[in-house]
C-alpha cells in the first residue's frame, strides 16, 4: 500500500491548462509537493453517515481553510432516512445506534441534538407456526426462560460478545492519539490480533459453537437476530456477527428528530459545499511531482468536473452500483469482488392481524417486535411497531388492536396476499429497497482503503462489519490516514503494539 506514495512523472505543460480550466489551487499550493502546504480542495463522494463524518474529521485535522466539496446524488443521510406517515416521520433506514459508539455520542453533544426518548416494548421470535421465544416484563423471568430452554448458551454468547467489544473499543484510544491504518486487516489486527482477522474469514455459527453455544440456540435466537439486522444467515463472518449481536443485547439509542440529522448538521457545521450530482468518473493528472484528481459529475445542468488534492469515496464501489470509472491510473484500479444484499423495508400503517401469530383477540397481542427463524413458512425477516422520530414526553404506543405504523423487513417486496396475512387492513404501504449491507458470503476479501496516493475508499470497512458505528470509525480512520500521509507522518500509520505505545505516551 505504501508504494502508492510514489509520485507520477511530471507533465509541466498540463499545469497551465489545469490552472486555466479550474482555477482551483490556492496561491503557492499548485507547485508545492504534498506535505509542504495543506491541501487546497478535498472531495467527498457520498453524504451518508460515513461521508458527512469524514468531511467533519477532515476539516478538524486539516483546518477550516480547506475547501470541502461533498457530492451526493440522492438525499443527505444515505441509509439514514425517514418516511412520512400522517405528517409524522419514521425511520426507514438505520434506526438505532449502539451506546458504545463514542463518536456518535460526541456528535450529538457537538451538534446540540438529543437522544430520543425510549418507548418500551417486548420482542418475540416466531417460527411461522408458533413463538419459540417470548420476552416478558420481568428481567429475571426472561433469564430463567433462556436458561431453561438453552442452558448456558446465553451466558456464553454474552461473554463472547463482551470480549469482542472490549477489544474493539481500543480503536477510540488509538484514534484519539492520532493513529491510523492503511488496511482493514491492519486495523483489526491492532485491536484483536490474528483472532479478529480470522473472524472475517469464518462464520459466526462456527465461532459460537466453538465457545459452547448450542446449535438449538443458534437456530432459534442467533438466526433471528441476524435476519433482523443483516437479512442474512449465520454464515456471515464472525466479526460482523459479533457487531450485530452486540446491538441485540440492548443499550441502543436514536436521535430525536431522526438519525439523519447527524449527517445534515455535520455538513452545516463544516460549511461543506454539498453538490447535488452523480459522480461518473475520477481521473488522475500529475504535474511537477504532484497528483491531482479530476472528479467528473452530472447534475441537472449537464456535465461538469473539478480538481482536488484529496478524494474520499464514501459510497459503494461494489456490485457495479456506483458506476464510477477510474481513468489514467497505472496500474488500473481493480474491480472489487462481492455483491450487496437487498433488504426491503415496508412501512405499513394498518391493523395487525394478530390471529396469524396465534392471538385471536387483538387486544392480547403483547409484542412490539417480532423476529423470525429461517423457516419456509416465514416470508419476512422481522417487523416492528415503530415510533415517530419525535417522541414527546406524553407519547404512548397505540393499543395492539388499534392502527399503528409497522416496519417490515423482507427479502422481496411483500405481495398483496402477504400483506393481508400480516394485517387485517391497512391505510398505506411505503416500500424502500436498500442495498444496505454487503452480501458477506459473496466475498471473503477485504477491499483496500488506499486506492491511490490520496484517493481513499471509506466503505471498505463495512466488509468487516456494517453499522453506523463502523462507518464513523472508518471515517475517522480515513481522515487520520489522509492527514498523516499528506504530512508524511508515517510513525502514526500501521504501528504495532499500540496499547503499549499509548501507555508509554501517557
From TrEMBL:
Enzyme's top EC category: oxidoreductase
Q: Where is the signal peptide?
A: 1-31
A Pfam family of the record is Prenylcys_lyase
Concerning InterPro entries, the annotation shows: FAD/NAD-bd_sf (IPR036188), Prenylcys_lyase (IPR010795), Prenylcysteine_Oxase1 (IPR017046)
A single Gene Ontology MF term assigned here is: L-amino-acid oxidase activity
Q: Does the keyword Calcium apply?
A: no
The EC number on file is: 1.4.3.2
Superkingdom of source: Eukaryota
- Family membership: Belongs to the prenylcysteine oxidase family. Belongs to the flavin monoamine oxidase family. FIG1 subfamily.
Q: What is this protein called?
A: L-amino-acid oxidase
> What gene is this protein translated from?
PCYOX1L
Amino acid at each position: 500500500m505504501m508504494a502508492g506514495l510514489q509520485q507520477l512523472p511530471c507533465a509541466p505543460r498540463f499545469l497551465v491548462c489545469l490552472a486555466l480550466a479550474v482555477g482551483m489551487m490556492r496561491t503557492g499550493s499548485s507547485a508545492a509537493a504534498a506535505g509542504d502546504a495543506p491541501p487546497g480542495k478535498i472531495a467527498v463522494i457520498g453524504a451518508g453517515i460515513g461521508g458527512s463524518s469524514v468531511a467533519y474529521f477532515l476539516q478538524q485535522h486539516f483546518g477550516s481553510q480547506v475547501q470541502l466539496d461533498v457530492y451526493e446524488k440522492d438525499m443527505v443521510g444515505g441509509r439514514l432516512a425517514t418516511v412520512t406517515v400522517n405528517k409524522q416521520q419514521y425511520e426507514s433506514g438505520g434506526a438505532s445506534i449502539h451506546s458504545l459508539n463514542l463518536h456518535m455520542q460526541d456528535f450529538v453533544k457537538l451538534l446540540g441534538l438529543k437522544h430520543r426518548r425510549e418507548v418500551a416494548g417486548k420482542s418475540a421470535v416466531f417460527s411461522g407456526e408458533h413463538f419459540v421465544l417470548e420476552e416478558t416484563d420481568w428481567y429475571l423471568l426472561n433469564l430463567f426462560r433462556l436458561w431453561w430452554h438453552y442452558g448456558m448458551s446465553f451466558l456464553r454468547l454474552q461473554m463472547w460478545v463482551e470480549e469482542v467489544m472490549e477489544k474493539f473499543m481500543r480503536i477510540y484510544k488509538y484514534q484519539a492519539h492520532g493513529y491510523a491504518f492503511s488496511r482493514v486487516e491492519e486495523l483489526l489486527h491492532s485491536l484483536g490480533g490474528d483472532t479478529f482477522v480470522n473472524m472475517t474469514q469464518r462464520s459466526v455459527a462456527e465461532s459460537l459453537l466453538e465457545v459452547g453455544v448450542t446449535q438449538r440456540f443458534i437456530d432459534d435466537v442467533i438466526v433471528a437476530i441476524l435476519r433482523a439486522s443483516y437479512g442474512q444467515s449465520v454464515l456471515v463472518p464472525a466479526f460482523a456477527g459479533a457487531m450485530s449481536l452486540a446491538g441485540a443485547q440492548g443499550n441502543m439509542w436514536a436521535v430525536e428528530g431522526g438519525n439523519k440529522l447527524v449527517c445534515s448538521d455535520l455538513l452545516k457545521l463544516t460549511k461543506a459545499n454539498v453538490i447535488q450530482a452523480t459522480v461518473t468518473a475520477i481521473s488522475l493528472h500529475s504535474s511537477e511531482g504532484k497528483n491531482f484528481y479530476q472528479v467528473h459529475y452530472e447534475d441537472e445542468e449537464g456535465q461538469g468536473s473539478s480538481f482536488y488534492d484529496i478524494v474520499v469515496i464514501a459510497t459503494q464501489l461494489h456490485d457495479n452500483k456506483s458506476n464510477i470509472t477510474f481513468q489514467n491510473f497505472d496500474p488500473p484500479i481493480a474491480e472489487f469482488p462481492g455483491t450487496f444484499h437487498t433488504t426491503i423495508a415496508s412501512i405499513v400503517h394498518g391493523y395487525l392481524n394478530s390471529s396469524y401469530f396465534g392471538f385471536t383477540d387483538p387486544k392480547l397481542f403483547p409484542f412490539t417486535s417480532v423476529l423470525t427463524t429461517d423457516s419456509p413458512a416465514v416470508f419476512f425477516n422481522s417487523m416492528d411497531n415503530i415510533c415517530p422520530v419525535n417522541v414527546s414526553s406524553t407519547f404512548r404506543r397505540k393499543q395492539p388492536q388499534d392502527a399503528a405504523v409497522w416496519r417490515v423487513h423482507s427479502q422481496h417486496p411483500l405481495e398483496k396476499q402477504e400483506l393481508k396475512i400480516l394485517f387485517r387492513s391497512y391505510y398505506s404501504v411505503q416500500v424502500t429497497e436498500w442495498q444496505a449491507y454487503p452480501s458477506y458470503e459473496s466475498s471473503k476479501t477485504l477491499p483496500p482503503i488506499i486506492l491511490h496516493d490520496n484517493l481513499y475508499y471509506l466503505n471498505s470497512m463495512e466488509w468487516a462489519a456494517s453499522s453506523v458505528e463502523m462507518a464513523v470509525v472508518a471515517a475517522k480512520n480515513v481522515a487520520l490516514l489522509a492527514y498523516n500521509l499528506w504530512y508524511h507522518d508515517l510513525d502514526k500509520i500501521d504501528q504495532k503494539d499500540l496499547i503499549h505505545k499509548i501507555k508509554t505516551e501517557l
